[in-house]
Design brief:
Helices cover about 25% and strands about 30% of the residues. It is α+β, with helices and mostly antiparallel strands. A 6-stranded antiparallel β-sheet has the order 1-13-12-14-8-7. Strands 2-3-6-4 form a 4-stranded mixed β-sheet, covered by helices on one side. Strand 18 and strand 19 form a beta hairpin.
């Protein structure tokens, strides 16, 4: 791991935080109250300054990408939301691609497949950012983000820039070490293999998702982790829950592992529906489902 100290001048400029920004506009659930502070980040230096500012002033902060795997509280977030828009993409050598954390993971999958590189075709249907995919170890179609990951660029809570190699990072199903670290992913590199049919494979994945998932609905993708040897969606469907709703929250009639904001759902509607599904599956099969969606509470100070 390489580390670079942050220079003092990085905190000399004033950061123009917005106040009371509605978070429902920045997540795919379209749910959530206002953030106490909000700042759009477009450069590495700006992220360093913002994290240092929050650390020095004891302000809780949250790094947000495309908001495709989070559920904000109806009261909002009582801290600073840093919207990661560090958005670059480059091929550093044959088969090696470096992208900013704010770059679209789906677009990365499409672009690399078009160029005949295989390994990220599955990403083309995931509506998150590169940073979010690295953070969650996003996966689909039997593949995971960590399988092609080469390195991760990271800023710690002290504003220091670090580069972790893949060998330094322990990954597992929908889990990364960054979930237990305080800082921000700002970029990642991936190593892919040349494959003539990469583009064809990528298109097949997207077409299959269009047929089997409610991609146009307001959702956070699959809500529950798949238990070992099982599919959460199939277990939920066996309970007869497709189409079941609580308030404005509904279980998709297309894919039972998708909970959707069908009609002005509140955060509490979603949480109650998650609990109902877990209790139903537990009663029906004895298996306890685990949610993979991150609920972000308001947390009064």
């Amino acid at each position: 791991m390489k580390s670079t100290d942050c220079k003092e001048e990085l905190i000399s400029e004033t950061l123009l935080f917005q106040e009371n920004v509605p978070l429902k506009e920045f997540c795919t659930f379209a749910i959530g109250g206002p953030s106490r502070y909000f700042l759009e980040i477009r450069t590495i230096e700006m992220m360093q300054k913002a994290i240092l500012h929050c650390h020095q002033h004891n302000i809780p902060y949250l790094i947000l990408g495309k908001g495709s795997n989070c559920l904000f509280d109806d009261k909002g977030f009582n801290g600073a939301v840093l919207l990661n828009k560090i958005n670059f993409f480059e091929q550093t050598s044959p088969g090696v691609f470096h992208a900013g954390a704010g770059y679209s993971f789906a677009l990365l999958g499409v672009q690399t497949a078009r160029q005949g590189w295989s390994g990220l075709e599955f990403a083309s249907g995931i509506p998150g950012s590169v940073g979010g995919a690295v953070y969650m170890n996003a996966g689909a179609n039997g593949q995971e983000t960590c399988q092609t990951l080469a390195s991760v660029d990271y800023i710690d809570s002290q504003g220091r820039l670090k580069v972790f190699t893949r060998d330094e990072l322990t990954y597992s199903y929908r889990h990364s070490p960054f979930q237990h670290m305080k800082g921000a992913i700002i970029g990642a590199s991936f190593v892919l293999k040349e494959l003539e049919d990469a583009r064809k494979k990528q298109i097949e994945i997207v077409n299959h998702r269009k047929k089997t998932q409610p991609l146009q609905a307001k959702s956070a993708g699959c809500i529950f982790l798949n238990p070992q040897g099982c599919h959460a969606g199939a277990m939920i469907e066996k309970c007869g829950l497709k189409g079941f709703s609580i308030g404005g929250a509904q279980i998709s009639e297309i894919h039972a592992n998708f909970l959707i904001n069908a009609e002005r759902a509140s955060c509490q509607d979603i949480l109650k529906l998650i609990d109902h599904v877990k209790n139903s599956v537990k009663s029906h099969s004895g298996v306890e489902l685990m949610s993979e969606v991150h609920y972000i509470p308001y947390e009064p100070r």
